[in-house]
Amino acid sequence: MTLSVEELTVCQNGKAIVKQVSLQVEPGKVTALLGANGAGKSELVLAIAGMMTVETGSISVAGQPITNASPEQVRRHGVAAVPEGHRVLASLSVDENLRAAGALLKQTELVETLKQIYELFPELALCKQQIAGTMSGGQQQMLAIGHALMAKPQYLLIDEMSLGLAPLIVKRLVKTLEQLVKLRTGVLLVEQFTEVALSIADSVIVLRSGKVCYSGSAEQLREDPEILAGAYL
Amino acid sequence: MAQRTLTLFIVTALMLGTCTYLAWGKPSSVVGLFVVSGLAVGSLYSLGGIGLVVLFRATGVLNLSNGAIGALGVMLAWQLQQWNFPQIATWVIGIATTTLLALVYGRLIAPGLAWRDPVVKAVATLGFALIVLGITAFAWEDDVRKFALPSDKISYTLLGLRITLTRLIVILAAIAIVIAVWLYLSKTRTGLNMRALADNRDISALIGIPIVKTETIAWGISGLIAGFTGLMFGDLVRLEPFVITFMVIPAISAAICGQLRNLGVVLIAGLCIGVIESMLTLHPVLKSVRPMAPFVIAIIVLMWVQRGRTNYFAGN
Amino acid sequence: MQMTKSAKIGLLFALLAFTFLPVLAGGQWIKIFISTGCFILAASGVAFMYARLGMVSLGQVALMGIGGWVMLRMNHAFDLPFEINLAVAGAVTLVFGWLLAMPALKMRGLYLALITLMAAGGLEVIFSTYRFPNGGEGFWGVMPSVAAPFRRPLVATDDADYLRYIIFAIVVGFLIIELHMRAAPGRAWAMIRRSEAAAYASGVNVVYYKAWAFGLAGFLAGTSGGLLAGGLGLLDPATFRASESIMLFALMVVGGSRGWLGVVIAGVLYRVVPALFNDWTIDADIALVIFGAALLHAIITAPNGLSGQLIDLFGKVGKRT
Amino acid sequence: MISLDNLTVRFGGVTALDAISAHFTQSISGIIGPNGAGKTTTMNAISGFLDYDGAIAWNDEKIDALNPFKRTRWGLRRSFQKEQIADDLTVLDNLLAITDNLPLSRDEKRAEVEQAIESLAITRLVNRKADSLNAYEKRLTDLGRCIIGKPKIVMLDEPCGGLQQEETDHLGELILKIPTLTQATTLIIDHDVDLISRVCAETLVLDFGKRIAFGETAKVLADPKVKAAYLGVEEVEA
Amino acid sequence: NDAVCGLNNGQAASGEPIKVGAIYGNAAPGDFSAATDAANAYFKCVNENGGIHGRPIQYLVENDQWNPELAAQAAAKLVKDEAVVAMVGNSSFVEMSVNAPMYAENGIMAMASGCAVSECFESSNIVSTNQGPLASSVGAAMYAVEELGATNISCIGMAIPSVGNWSCGAVQSYMESKGLNASYVLLNPAAPDVNSALLEAIASGADSILVNLPAGLAIAFLSVAEEQDLGDAYSWTSSTPLYDASVPKTLGEYWSGKMFVSAELTTIDGAGADNQNWLRVMDAYADPADPRDTFAQAGYLSARYFVKTMNEMNPVNVDNRALVTAAIQAIKGYDSDLMCGPYYVGRADRHMPNHAGIIVEVRDEAFHVVRDCFEYEGPYFEPILDAEKTLGLR
Ligand SMILES: Nc1ncnc2c1ncn2[C@@H]1O[C@H](COP(=O)(O)OP(=O)(O)OP(=O)(O)O)[C@@H](O)[C@H]1O
Ligand SMILES: Nc1ncnc2c1ncn2[C@@H]1O[C@H](COP(=O)(O)OP(=O)(O)OP(=O)(O)O)[C@@H](O)[C@H]1O
Ligand SMILES: CC(C)C[C@H](N)C(=O)O
Ligand SMILES: [Mg+2]
Ligand SMILES: [Mg+2]
Q: How is chain B split among helix, strand and coil, in percent rounded to 5?
């Protein structure tokens, strides 16, 4: 019952950017994905979400392969991703954005989930009718996270979660993640604030130029930050 | 919403003003004739423009091959008429063919271009238009033909001009399509999916919108409209593939007036363009360049609605 | 100023064409290359606007019509030399380019493209209604009988020399664009392409530089139209239909918009290929089908245009040897 | 010194900035606030991208009458929340794009560019196309554009968004150098409170378009209102 | 088979072929290839029947696709690269206006068969067997005045100066010369809307409408007239484009007995010996799918006159373009039952040998001759008639 990535290689313009990466996201656990700029974290997240062609390797959810499946199929398998860079449907309103993100839900479920999202982000509830493209950077990030949560995912991949978010919101999000984890959601978290990431992560994977250069428990890193610094360099 | 209503109002007012200017000092009976005649042509512009906008709002593709597809449909229907097929069968087969063609493009070709910029997507449909047009022109060598519908024989008199039932059908169909599409896009979930898809295909895929299904429906609807439009053009304009194919260019002007979005404005703009074009006949100098009307009006309207608006953040 | 490899190859190519093309080609093919050359020059205007500013003009061929019209008008009305007429044609079209730039100040992307298409549609009607001057009386200068003679440049009265003249003009046109690209306008255009906010934040006077770009594209269209008029001695409205402007843009996308090779490919596809089809007596309708299919295929499979593919190919071959 | 007087911005019916007044006297100041508070809007108003009521001045030079590109020529520099450098130009050309439009002599322009490259130590980047840069290198380029040509106001909108800790630290160092390199007054938006408290002497806090605090950074961050609205320290609510 | 061609000696031609060129237009708006097809059939027949002084004709045909540049390229290929001695059977909407100066410059004659624009009739080195829109419109107008009692004609033309203004202008001057009224309405071929043109014609106060449009546009125009039920309110005539076999059926019952069309040459089924010979040549040498229409007749006629001229030349001169041109220019008084008047060329700045025609009526899904050969009148023809007098043809 895990989201597992085996020996994954992903290329961009003929250049391998993610090289032979293996990792596991387990239900009820948070895996933090760390690494310097350009290490290939975002590419990896997109590849799992079905947005990049996988060169070699495999991805599977609970034993079922989803390698090179369409993003929609991936989502049907319970995997939802928040890509980097506040990506929202710019010409639609906030409410329409969230409703569209619930395309796979039944009508009643949709209404209910929508309510939950607005409870999580009362900021969004204040501007339901605003066109998403005119929102502030942080508001768009909330909306992008809302997109993923609308799927009621079993596995949640978040790239640069706190990008552009006020500390207050980050705290709230961390709480939400903890709740979700309690409900046995598996989380893959890319986060530039290492502290935040380590505070909730169970295991950590560090990428360096596309390769896994460290993989271990978060506990260890929390105790010995030197290991992490070593991995980065 | 208020903004849109205002736009609609301004566009209408501008066009009425122009008509009044052109009609000034002419006997009202003559003016009436030209107005009715213009409405008849204008409804064709509207219909063409609506077909473009519906697909654009649903997929983000401005389909320049609408005309070519429609032309093939009506040529086929004509051929079947010659072979004495039952009338209804000829229309159904004609429209079914256009739907199929639209689906072929939408399912097989359009996805390969999904990430290109909208202009390239539009230009690519020109390639498809050339293919369809070439096939049509090859299959039906240049000859004198006429496509008739039973509704041509029934007519009503309006302000002194006889209007056939076919022309009324065009106007009513345009209105019906506008209302139906508006309801569909704004009230149904598939409609919302379409708008999401048109906005950004990547994000839509990521948030789980069933792309294949949604696009199939959108292209199917657009093929149906293109087929119907083709039949009407074939009957009311000319049964010549090239003429029908390139009717898409003036139809774009109606679509532009509605900013490729506002179907109500497209409808009204199309009608107004038709009326103005018709009334230009009354102007001694401008009458020789009457067909410029759609283009000039589109430019003026778009520049008007974009006036004062500088979007500093537009870009890629 | 430093020359890139691509520029060196381009100049060499132009030199070869200049020397041998007129010698090797017969009367028919010289004529074909003359009009190909004119459209290459015009396409270069569309290409730099698209590649550098991200702006699409679907009115370039219509603008050529204006240049051609002015050229003919000047030729039949005054006894001035070819070059002066050409300069006037370029200048007048440049002004029309500015007019097209007016909507561009507020719009971009598809809207802008469609506005230019509407302008092309309007011009198509004017051209087909009033025709091109052929030596008649009055402003429009149209008479029912055979056109009055057209004066070619003194150095290029016969077709072969005229082809050389055009190749020279293309090189000059490309150099003008290249000089722009390497200087302030090129950088300003790149910022505009990124976003207007970025351009303003760089101190770029967006209105001015957009108008400049449209003016330059218009100038190139105008001169190429004038040169085209010189090729035939007269012009026909059918050449300048709005759909031709779309076609030129499409072929520019197929050829590739970044660099001379793409533009040359676009010109060749636009004029040489149909001529070949015609020469092989392929039915015009079938030619349309082939052309459409090839267009679609190229747009889908070669996102950087055929020139991009060619360069990749030679790059690989070059590495291997 | 930058002074904002009764700065008000409306979008349709919504008031995004409500009569904000602040006089930034320090050479580097911060603007913080919850998401959607109006921070970016403030910068956009100062850049002239929005219609606003109120007045903006630097050392008593009013700039309200200038349009956006004139403001840049006058001495306003800024970076954007989403970086906005031209992908198809080299880093050098991205820098030159600014000096092109400044009323400087050829030599002065070259000197300015060289100085910026040197002080940010980005010599190895100058001939790289911007699309091959990583996020951090793009931010450096952005910063380079901001210190070029004797700026009077420099504004950075979330310069450290998406950067790793060490990169943020380094960028912070560079930002601290701005006052020594130029006479500019610098404004920074960021959600990284550590960064703000390290580099900004003075901070403005916005919430729902209103000024809720302004003053010395440490004091402002200790303000219960700020803690409640921004930092999310719930206990103080009582 | 008993088709009669050229020397008609039943011997296959041999030796070095004589190159003859032609340009036709076949693309978007219409197919003008019927004339070259017919000329080609005739040349094939000639090549099997003694050729030109025993030598075969090599007929080189190019399509201009209605594209002026292609037209110029085609002419360059034929005239310069292939060095044809003459152009025979040209039939196009654009070719003549583009290439007329070039033909003159190169001293080559074009014995065209399908001229449409004024430049074609008003140039020194082109002569056409067909009448073009001007002459046939004037013929239609004469019929409207003389038989249908028209006093005020509205001529519906294309908004192309060298076609619409030119031909409808001639109708107007004809009417004025008779003390009657006429006006014209020009229709932009790009316009989808033909209704307004109809309304404009009505508003002009005309009592007769002369449709001078290409067939497709004419059909569209007549459909809106039918929509308004104007068939009996006006008398209706048309220039030649409507004389096409499929027109009566397309127009339908409504127009039966109401529409009169001016035909440039004899009817397709004309009983004259030459017309029958044309049909035989077509049957024997042309593709069965090639049209048998007025243009095919014109193409046949041009080809026949050309062969006749060449065979009358000294055999040593037939490769000499200048002498061939001179011989063609010397043609005078050739007769055929296909054409109402004599065919001639002459040295002149304009050529329009065919300016007499017949009128057919659309009735019961077919055409019926209602008026046989008659000479067209009007100011436009005066200089032509004068020229004919000096040639001794009158
Ligand atoms: N279109 C492209 N062509 C070539 N290389 C690319 C392209 N897009 C991204 N890359 C490269 O791929 C590598 C991985 O990028 P990715 O965005 O996955 O990194 P990341 O670890 O998420 O970094 P960051 O912290 O900046 O988000 C980078 O070196 C980047 O330069
Ligand atoms: N064009 C617009 N139309 C309507 N509302 C807008 C527009 N632009 C911004 N807003 C609203 O104005 C408010 C202020 O936005 P601003 O971008 O200044 O926020 P911010 O403080 O920069 O937030 P963040 O930290 O998330 O970037 C937000 O509520 C935003 O939704
Ligand atoms: C006919 C098409 C294949 C191309 C274009 N219309 C041209 O004339 O070149
Ligand atoms: Mg990343
Ligand atoms: Mg912001």
A: 80, 5, 20
